[in-house]
Structure of Shieldin complex subunit 2 first OB fold domain-containing protein:
Amino acid sequence: MRWVAFTGAPTRAECYRSLATRDGAQPVRSAARWRVLSNGSPSQETAVLRAQSISSTQAVEAALLGTVAEPHEGGCKTFLEAGFDSQDMHVLGEEDIDYLEQSLAIAQAAPPASASDETQDASRTADTQAGTESRAQGIFGIDLFMIIPLKRAHEMLKQHGQFGASISILAAIIEVTELRELSTKRGTNKLVTVEVWDESGSTLRIAAWGDVAQHWRNTVRRGDVVHVNNIRLCMYLGKPQGTARYDSLLTICYRTRYAGSQDDQYRPDLELPWRHEPTLRVRRLVELVS
């Protein structure tokens, strides 16, 4: 039995860069990465290992390190919400194995980078750091026809299958967890989860791994209104969860919690002299979370 975990983590050069224009964005493609954690049984027979899930941190720690899968402070409480505890955790079964294999297939479906793409990758600069674009002009690149309300996450999964739904959202960040470094026998990996809320009143937790996790933790804050492209949805214990993929991009549209001049780039003028629907949507979210 092969145990794998999604490590995500596109590098700074591999991220999906927004050109901050009305013409949208140009992708820089690269394969998402997975890590084989174990080719045999884990140390804890009753541990859960769910790739592309918010609870991967607790699951891998329980499986490989023998730790108790209690929810981390400020983190997801999926196990407790599902009625499991450290003595009665979900046993890995055929459904879980199918989940891992299908998730792996989805992540590896990305087209390989061409030679020209690799050249472009090498020239990327710091304004495109690990899947985050933060210029105020990013608002003008939002295509509202592509924005999916979070309340439709269940519906999207039903339409596209448990592993096939990819969405773009416009939402406010209501929680950012601390950066977690997960130590295993094969090295370390970083994980951050971001919980977002939108006008539909629904929430979604998004997992970011590796370099993306590091940069998101250093860049985004509670109260930020963000546009997130290409978040892969999956169903975990009856709830939609999100995972940042190789081509995901988070754009900070507006920062509601001003901390000084360094935040000026995140606070564009939302009082435009003409009607611009993306700006109006951002402004409504700002008013709701301020």
User: Anything to note?
Assistant: The CA atoms of residues 136 and 268 lie 5 Å apart. Helices lie at 56-65, 78-81, 94-107, 115-122, 153-160, 210-219, 277-289.
